[in-house]
Amino acid sequence: MRTRIVAIFAALTLTLTGCTGSTPTDVVDPEGAREAVVTMVDTSAHALGGGWQVYSGPAVERCTKSDGGDGAAYAYIVMRGPTVGDPEADVAVLDELWSGRGITTETYQSEGRPPHLGIRGVGGPTTSIDLLADPRGYSISAVSECADGDESEMQGDGE
């Protein structure tokens, strides 16, 4: 019985740390978190083509680290104007790209009228990433992993 409990605990620990892509001893520095989220969003935009513009960020925000302490994460959003693109094909492109980077993906439809196709992901080099393929304008938004740092202090320093 004791061996079974230890095996269940070990499997649960692996499952939980596998979901976040990190273990409590991992240290993410703010510059690495910022670079990772910008690179992933820009790579995604490049894969879809067209003229993307920064809508917001990368902007620092408060987050909770795996050890329970406060940290800093970066949010980054880019947008592309009205498009004649193919939302289904674009979602498929990002599904392949993101899956190849260790991101777990899920497609969805927005609740708007008419609903628009999208894809969201978790893990890999970001905590979350999302594409909304609205023909009036696409958006890609992402949040980095939670890094060491004080978001208030970083904002005061111009982040």
Blueprint (SSEs and pairs):
Blueprint: H1 2-20, H2 30-48, E1 52-64, E2 70-80, H3 87-100, E3 103-109, E4 117-123, E5 126-134, E6 137-144, H4 151-156
Antiparallel strand pairs: 1-2, 2-6, 3-4, 4-5, 5-6
Looking at the structure, the CATH topology is TBP-like
Low-confidence stretches: 1-25
Calculate the mean pLDDT score and round it.
Answer: 80
Strand content: 25-35%
Q: What does the largest sheet look like?
A: 6 strands, antiparallel
Chain oligomer state: single chain
Would you give an account of this structure?
This protein is of the alpha+beta class and 159 residues long. It has one domain: TBP-like (2-Layer Sandwich). It has helices at residues 2-20, 30-48, 87-100, 151-156, and strands at 52-64, 70-80, 103-109, 117-123, 126-134, 137-144. A hairpin with a 5-residue loop joins strand 1 (52-64) and strand 2. The N and C termini lie far apart (53 Å).
Task: Give a quick summary of the entry.
This protein has 159 residues and is of the alpha+beta class. 36% of the residues lie in helices and 35% in strands.
